Amino acid sequence: MAIPPNSGATLYSAMKSLTQEINSDVIAIQEVDVHQSRSGNGNQVKEIAELIGAKHWAFAPSMYGTPGEKWEGIKEDLIFDNSNPPPSREMYGIGIVSKVPVKKWHRINLGKAPLGMPLLLAGEKRPRFIYVSDEPRSALVAELENGISVTTTHLSFVPIKNVLQLKKITKWVEQLDGLHFITGDFNLPWGLAPKISGWQDLVKGPTYPSWKPSLEFDYIMSKELSANDVIPKIHSHHGISDHLASSISIR
């Protein structure tokens, strides 16, 4: 699930509606704002945790500042969580909230492409081309006490770089014991992510753009389970993201 900027009260109301619809024990989110004026100066990860009654949450910032404006990339292994909240500084990144106790949080730094590229950005009225520089990427891993690991990431939009990033994540995560899930916006259309990784695609279907989905950019994948082992769902458009949220229930 991606949470883009919006006015504080409107965004909070939409987040509440969406999290109630998803009703999951673990929620992974990308494009997260923390202390950004454009989204009400809140901590979106903590707010979602409070909405679902989750005691455990973590935020892995990709940058200080605001994407598309002035920002500074983060290369350190920074993770802020419920026991170590982030400082009052504008940040942007990825997060996980969990009702299940978390044994350990991990961060995998993935770097960024040296060059950006022109992108065709979907718009509700018409698409448009703009040149976009890449940003630092990372993956956040929640090693849960029930033996499941959940990873979230937002991969580069630059071809080849996103493939290398996905391979780095799967190689790292496969070293953990237990059942594994990798989620997020991979910027890999046409079902490429499971073909590249050898993992199983558990929620098949277009998720982007949210108002007229035609591409599958967002994945929930598992190393051990198949689509027959879960109940998948792609959720409705709530007006707060250009991607649709997806979820699974393990049978």
Structure in a nutshell:
The protein has helices at 8-22, 44-52, 161-173, 192-197, and strands spanning 26-34, 56-65, 71-73, 80-81, 91-98, 102-111, 117-121, 128-132, 137-144, 148-154, 179-185, 200-201, 218-222, 230-234, 246-250. With 251 residues, the protein is an alpha+beta fold.
Overview of the structural elements:
The chain is of the alpha+beta class and 251 residues long. The chain has one domain: Deoxyribonuclease I, Chain A (4-Layer Sandwich). The protein is built from four helices and 15 strands. A six-stranded mixed sheet has the order 6-9-10-11-13-12, covered by helices on one side. Strands 1, 2, 3, 4 and 5 form a five-stranded antiparallel sheet that branches. It has a two-stranded antiparallel sheet with strand order 7-8. The relative contact order is 0.15.
Note the topology.
Blueprint: H1 8-22, E1 26-34, H2 44-52, E2 56-65, E3 71-73, E4 80-81, E5 91-98, E6 102-111, E7 117-121, E8 128-132, E9 137-144, E10 148-154, H3 161-173, E11 179-185, H4 192-197, E12 200-201, E13 218-222, E14 230-234, E15 246-250
Parallel strand pairs: 10-11
Antiparallel strand pairs: 1-5, 2-3, 2-4, 2-5, 6-9, 7-8, 9-10, 11-13, 12-13, 14-15
| C-alpha Rg (nearest Å) | 17 Å
The total domain count is 1
| CATH architecture label name | 4-Layer Sandwich
Helix-strand makeup class:
alpha+beta
Strand content range = 35-45%
The CATH superfamily is identified as Endonuclease/exonuclease/phosphatase
Specify the CATH class.
Answer: Alpha Beta
How do the strands of the widest beta sheet line up side by side?
6-9-10-11-13-12
Largest sheet: 6 strands, mixed
Cα separation of the termini: 22 Å
Query: H/E order of the elements?
Result: HEHEEEEEEEEEHEHEEEE
Under CATH, the topology can be stated as: Deoxyribonuclease I, Chain A
Q: Which word captures the global form?
A: globular
Mean pLDDT: 92
Number of strands: 15
* Count of helical stretches: 4
